[in-house]
Amino acid sequence: MDAISPAILLLNLPPSALGGMDLLSFTTTPKFKGIKNIPSGLHFVFVGSTSTLSVRHGVWIKVNAPSSSPPDFFIRKWDSSSEELIAETDVTTLLQQRANLGRIWRDNLTPYRQSASQDTTAVEDSNRWVQLTDCISESLLTRVLDADVETWTLTSSSSAKQDFDEIPGLSASDLTGNERELHLLPVDLRKTWRQGATGRERTEAAQDRSWALADLTTRFCNDDMNQIIGELQFCFAMVLTLNNYSCLEQWRRILDLILTCVSAVTTHPSFFVRALATVKLQLQHGQDVETGLFDLSDDGATFLKSLLLRFKKALDRLPGDAHADVIDELDDLLAYTQETLGWQIQQGSFARTGMLSLEDGEEVEMDNTAFDEDDEAGEYAPTVVELSAEQMELLGIESIQQVMNGNKTPNLRDRIQKDQTDAGRDGYQYEVQSDEESEKGLPAFDEDEEEELDLEDMDARY
Fold it and tell me: 172-195 burial, b if ≥16 CB within 10 A, otherwise e?
């Protein structure tokens, strides 16, 4: 018998069940009892009741590096009533399995690396798993799964709170049932500015989400940006192995956040280099995802294509060369998507106008406005509006030169409050009247005068 090494024992698996570890998956046989010769590091073991589509249950395990201590030996069993993988806690069973370890080791455990003929491929898969998960840490798993190392478990149906269906009257526990809630980072792409921000600050934070990225890193990741990439890797791994939909949504949200940052690229270039390298590696395994959750065709990858195009345009506009490594990594990613996946996402590589042939043979000219928002073209193009004298007076602007010189103008709200204060000082009293009373006290206007007032009011508001 070969030397004892780290192993996991899987008991009571149903016949022809789906089993897997990391990037390996297989249909189990009656003789199969587990996996041996597991290399050190974090690994994910998953099981499904059938080899077809079914709810899968998985557990993360940590294998320690070789030392003088006995190698790690994990025992899990399949609970047929709940269809989940749970820890074996029966003392008698534990002693019995350890007593028969020699026979089980020889006849019932399959090696992590299958055979000598497949050794090169197995080593490559093992290395790829390490690359796909190198930023996943014990602290990250504890945070996301809200559990200690013995119960790092989740299923295909586990979900984060932000992905629950909003059903009035039902609590979070009612919505999740017995499924574990995932405590993923609260990425809110609808609000990417600080509390109390107004005006220009909100606009800039919506276009450049660097503040939101830094805020998440500070509040939830102990200022460790690798945890952002770690969660990106965790979500992809759970989509790859469990087909977990909530993790797919979080993967999209994190990518949307990272690839819409601008100023952070110059201050944290190494983070973006690592993030882009991670995305490239994940795309190389995107075809392995079942059920079509990842559509990497040229037509199906619109979400990621538009993000990469927008990110490239933002990098091209940045001054200096502090982000040169980020540009190189992005160019490598774009080259891969074009050569391997057939994507066309380079700037200027899409048609804005063209002729569309109808079924009856008629041809009509069509305009493509899909990228107008990113290009600030068409209806999204910025416009210069000339203010009228009344609008300038309302905004407290004495002249255009005052604005050009950067002189501060009174805030409209401050002006209104000042007018109200002055009115109160002069002895005016305000009384709320009914509609009929207020109409009696108003002078009569003809329709032309009323329309003119409406237009002036609209000018003042816009």
Answer: eeebbeeebbbebbebeeeebbee
